[in-house]
Prior knowledge:
Number of strands: 10
Bound molecules: NADP nicotinamide-adenine-dinucleotide phosphate
Low-confidence stretches: 3-9
Number of helices: 11
Order of helices and strands: EEEHEHEHEHEHEEHEHHHHH
CATH topology of the largest domain: Rossmann fold
Strand order of the largest sheet: 5-4-3-6-7-8-9-10
CATH superfamily of the largest domain: NAD(P)-binding Rossmann-like Domain
Amino acid sequence: MSSSSSSSSSSSLPTQTLKIGIVGFGTFGQFLAKTMIKQGHTTRATSRTDYSQLCHQLDVPFFRDVIPFLEADNDVILICTSILSLSEVLNSMPLRRLKRHTLFVDVLSVKEHPRNVLLQVLPENMDVLCTHPMFGPESGKNRWKDLPLVYEKVRVRDETRCSSFLHIFESEGCRMVEMSCEEHDKVAARSQFLSHSIGRILAEMGIESTSMNTKSFETLVKLKESTTNDSFDLFSGLFIHNRFAQQELMNLEQSFEKVKQRLLKKMSEQQSLSSV
Ligand code: NAP
């Protein structure tokens, strides 16, 4: 880790240039890597798919074999795999090959699950920071200003290194939200999971833009498009690995039924009025 002169806005600790090893170089891993590289951090990647060519263009060393990746000198190992594959990916990594104390960071869209898995599989001397950037390649395409970064310092002993990592987001203008993984999942089930579910329902209905869109309908079309741009693995991960999501799905179903019953009741009242 090499020191630089800037300092973190959330603490007086100096920030450092980091060597960041990315596990899972799909859409989101690539998206994050671009900003890290722009900021002068060193990145390297490993993934199930062979991204050698793409990595060559980005000047990011790509490791097909996870052992040299783990043995490389990483300050941070950044987990960007799908929610569904997290356990399989971490359990398949020979973590004893790690040469030094490392900060493990995840960016999964659920938080209790990666916190539990990381604490279970990692050696005790590894630090753990759980994060959720509440934006993606579309919403964060031009800039990250004011976009939320939710995080919990689950097991952090090296504060300078952790603060240097968080500074990547701070320096882009993100709104830094420190919150427990449990609280994140509670809130996300009622916001992110709900909006993804409604987007998927709208896609199932096949809604399309019309020549007479209202502003509200345009919002629905955009919601459908943005949620279906994300993989179905991501959406199902939001449900399977967030213990609060099932209740929200039931709430959605019950509320739909209530609204439907109110409409049917009103229709029957109107019909009996007009038949007098
Ligand atoms: P994703 O479909 O959730 O995850 C794709 C990544 O998971 C790829 O790197 C893929 O590897 C890896 N993967 C999937 N199944 C695997 C398996 N069986 N074994 C090994 N690796 C596997 O799509 P994503 O959008 O890139 O998201 C990555 C992570 O970031 C997710 O945890 C998501 O919740 C989180 N996140 C995404 C966004 C967003 O806007 N997209 C925002 C915030 C957080 P290969 O590419 O090598 O196949």
